[in-house]
Design goal:
Number of strands: 4
Strand content: 5-15%
Shape: elongated
Oligomer: single chain
Strand order of the largest sheet: 2-1-3-4
Distance between the termini: 29 Å
Length: 288
């Protein structure tokens, strides 16, 4: 009986060791990809900053036009762009984002633009109307895709299909902290055109926009949203990788602890088996 238990424990130790090798490899891969994702996010920020500065300058220096992107379209329907992961094994990365979405969408009439397989699966299960499933794999969404997505969203907003467009993603705070966040894309609340701004006391350069400032503003908006979307995707991917790295590190530590406990149990069982055999030998030798 003891031999059978020892064999089962030994097989269990071997199984846990194989699992630990997988979790350790996934931890190293996530750590390697995380550095690249953070670099892409940092490299995209200057482009976003320049476009944002351009929109702000136009809005501040021109009060004789109104942009369709700076005011609600009149529709009560919301569009949420939700950036989730393509795979699991990332701790609470996806579940935390979806719980956050539940609170953001409560009581609202909304559609979802899903980015990521988990996002598609979740909202399809919830029977939520999806804007499109063309970009189901967030890992394959590149810069050109972001420009196309931004143009589709801007067209839908200008047609009055949606009154508000929100972006939901996971913000990378630190290696151990990733927080679900939401930001408004449309209407552009940060660039209120046609409103008088307080002067900062500095002389402003007079810039002549061709064909006119409104046309330039409306042309830059999709580019700005594409940059914001691309940066958010990179930040979300970095958050997912950080969450997966942390989860796999915890799984590796748990596997090591389990192997240690199983090895201790195996050695005790082995020692008990040896003691029993010695006892039986001694008892047999003492018989007349």
């Amino acid at each position: 009986m003891a031999g059978a238990n020892m064999k089962a424990v030994k097989l269990r130790i071997s199984s846990v060791q194989n699992t630990m090798q997988i979790t350790k490899a996934m931890q190293l891969v996530a750590a390697s990809k995380l550095r690249k994702a953070k670099e892409r996010a940092d490299e995209s920020k200057p482009y976003l900053s320049i476009l944002g500065k351009t929109l702000e300058d136009i809005a501040n220096s021109n009060r004789d036009f109104q942009s369709p992107y700076s005011k609600p379209s009149g529709s009560d329907r919301w569009l949420f762009i939700v950036i989730a992961g393509d795979r699991g094994l990332a701790g609470g990365y996806n579940s935390n984002l979806f719980r956050f979405m539940e609170s953001e969408t409560k009581g609202r009439d909304y559609d979802v633009f899903p980015l990521g397989r988990k996002s598609v699966e979740y909202f399809r299960h919830k029977n939520v109307k999806l804007f499109t499933e063309e970009y189901a794999e967030v890992a394959k969404v590149g810069v050109s895709d972001c420009f196309e997505i931004a143009r589709e969203i801007c067209d839908a907003f200008r047609k009055g299909e949606y009154g508000h467009v929100f972006l939901c993603y996971t913000n990378f705070v630190s290696m151990l902290n990733q927080t679900p966040s939401a930001t408004s894309l449309l209407p552009l609340s940060d660039f209120r055109t046609g409103e008088k701004r307080e002067s900062d006391g500095k002389a402003k350069n007079l810039i002549l926009y061709e064909p006119d400032s409104e046309e330039v503003f409306n042309t830059v908006v999709p580019e700005y949203l594409a940059g914001l979307l691309y940066t958010s995707i990179n930040v979300s991917v970095a958050s997912e990788l950080a969450a997966r790295r942390t989860a796999m590190e915890a799984a590796t530590d748990n596997a090591e602890e389990m192997i240690e406990n199983l090895s201790l149990f195996y050695n005790r069982a082995r020692q008990a088996s040896i003691t029993q055999e010695i006892t039986e030998i001694v008892a047999g030798a003492e018989e007349p």
